[in-house]
From TrEMBL:
Protein origin, superkingdom: Bacteria
Name under which the protein is recorded: Histidine kinase
Upper lineage: Bacteria, Bacillati, Bacillota, Bacilli, Bacillales
Entries under InterPro entries matching the protein: FRMsr_CS (IPR000614), GAF (IPR003018), GAF-like_dom_sf (IPR029016), Phosphatase_reg/MetRdx (IPR051330)
The GAF domain, residue ranges: 35-156
PANTHER family the UniProt entry points to: FREE METHIONINE-R-SULFOXIDE REDUCTASE, GAF/PUTATIVE CYTOSKELETAL PROTEIN
Record has Metal-binding as a keyword: no
């Protein structure tokens, strides 16, 4: 586990180790719920200053709560709504320094102040999103975004 105050190089090395751990945990496993459960637990253990880590899965015409670590969460998020729905609509990562300034933010946990959401794709189709919340404003930086996206790219290979 690393502290957010570590030097940049250390943070990058820690993320590289995290991705190797993900690969070791998922290699050879076929059950997607087990894979997503371990991925959320691994991130929750690794990241500091986060209060929710988990997945929303694309079903029919919206996102449905999947494996996660944290307090109970919103069960369904409509396409294009909130940070998660926007990530699906735009097909790209949403890194939000202050969720209270995000138009249409869905407050599942009032303690959350910043958020990063990375869309997950399988065979070119939306599979869902990885959602990470923090009680700290501006918790996620460019390095977090880069490596969380790499984490998701690695994960996609096993889904």
């Amino acid at each position: 586990m690393f502290e957010t105050t570590k030097k940049l190089g250390d943070k990058e090395k820690d993320y590289e180790l995290l991705i190797k751990q993900l690969t070791a945990l998922t290699d050879g496993e076929l059950d997607e719920i087990a894979i997503l459960s371990n991925a959320s637990a691994l991130l929750n253990q690794f990241l500091t200053e986060v209060n929710w880590v988990g997945f929303y899965l694309w079903k029919e015409d919206g996102l449905v709560l999947g494996p996660f670590q944290g307090l109970p969460a919103c069960i369904r998020i409509p396409y294009g709504k909130g940070v998660c729905g926007t990530a699906v609509k735009e097909g790209k990562t949403q890194r939000v320094a202050d969720v209270h300034q995000f138009p249409g933010h869905i407050a599942c946990d009032s303690a959350s102040n910043s958020e990063i959401v990375v869309p997950v794709f399988v065979n070119g189709e939306v599979y869902g999103v990885l959602d990470i919340d923090s009680p700290i404003k501006n918790r996620f930086d460019e390095v977090d975004e880069l490596y969380i996206e790499k984490f998701v790219k690695t994960l996609e290979q096993y889904l």
